[in-house]
């Protein structure tokens, strides 16, 4: 391979695209090559590397609840969350998601913090990469009869029951789900602290949004 100083900027860019590199290699390129264009290219890559490290650190943090349970021998941990308890109209949707052990999905966060197109992309990725997902919807008639709070709990209960894989433990966003025999841990603001709950929040939110969009077209 040529030395970086013997390559054009385009060649260096192609090399970085097609090879494995780290911060040490990037700093070496900067030290060895005085070209401004090379420095701009490498600094851009360094920023990307920094963002990647930050994202990996964030994902490790929000997998801490799951990791503790995996280490205790729980294999199938379901994150559970709902969408629709805030709005004044429409149904409540709730999802349960079981991820493979140590699975990380970049960008996953509380669904409310994500742009709609990112939610849509992650929805498809979660459905594809999760071990199991289930989303259930409680309609307006149930809400009118039982109130929005109990409708949310009912939706979460149905989502857990609808999983094909029986969960061994539930991580829920703030609420204890009554009538479920599976051990569970409600986590305040769980959709920002647990990857499984965050995945469930995305599945529930996107599912409900699609229902509301269909209503608008009618």
Can you give a write-up of this model?
The protein has eight helices and five strands. The protein has two domains: 4-61, no CATH class; 64-217, Nucleotidyltransferase, domain 5, CATH 3.30.420.10. With 218 residues, the chain is an alpha/beta fold. The protein has helices spanning 9-18, 23-32, 36-61, 64-71, 116-129, 140-146, 148-161, 195-217, and strands spanning 77-83, 92-98, 132-138, 169-173, 184-187. The mean pLDDT is 93. The chain is elongated, with a radius of gyration of 22 Å. Helix 2 (23-32) packs antiparallel against helix 3 (36-61) and helix 5 (116-129) packs across helix 8. It has a five-stranded mixed β-sheet, with helices on both faces. Helix content is 51%, strand content 14%. The N and C termini lie far apart (62 Å).
CATH superfamily of the largest domain: Ribonuclease H-like superfamily/Ribonuclease H
| Alpha-carbon distance between the two ends | 62 Å
CA radius of gyration is: 22 Å
Strand order of the largest sheet: 3-2-1-4-5
Helix content: 40-55%
Whole-number mean pLDDT: 93
What is the structural class?
Answer: alpha/beta
Q: Count the strands? A: 5
Low-confidence stretches: none
SS field, number of helical segments:
8
How many structural units, i.e. domains? 2
Kindly report the CATH topology of the largest domain: Nucleotidyltransferase, domain 5
- CATH class term of the largest domain: Alpha Beta
List the helices and strands and how they pair.
Elements: H1 9-18, H2 23-32, H3 36-61, H4 64-71, E1 77-83, E2 92-98, H5 116-129, E3 132-138, H6 140-146, H7 148-161, E4 169-173, E5 184-187, H8 195-217
Helix pairs in contact: 2-3, 5-8, 6-7
